[in-house]
Task: structure prediction
Amino acid sequence: MAGIDFRALRCEVGMDAVLRLLRFVPSRRHGEQLRGACPVHGSRRPESRSFSVNLAKNAWRCFHCGLAGTQLDLWAAATGQPLYQAAIDLCERLHRPVPRPPHPRIISTARQTRTSSANSS
Ligand SMILES: [Zn+2]
Result:
């Protein structure tokens, strides 16, 4: 299974793109802060404001579900997919290549360093 550069993906695909795919219609807008019906638990009332999203920070929170996260977490939660699958699905729907980690060796070295320092302490 090839890795995904989630950080690059979060930089390239904004919250607004995910909300568009989810057909999210805000019931209230205050600058970059939107409120509306939650696409994760599927609020029935269109005037619902349980779902809060910040476009500038690419962050969301639902006061009903108690869930929160990035735009990738939102797509995963709303479509019921694991994060890895959700990231690939999101790229396919947006017709863009899946960003892959540029230096897998550096990442694995960093992981080993963390493990050895945890063992020594
Ligand atoms: Zn919710």
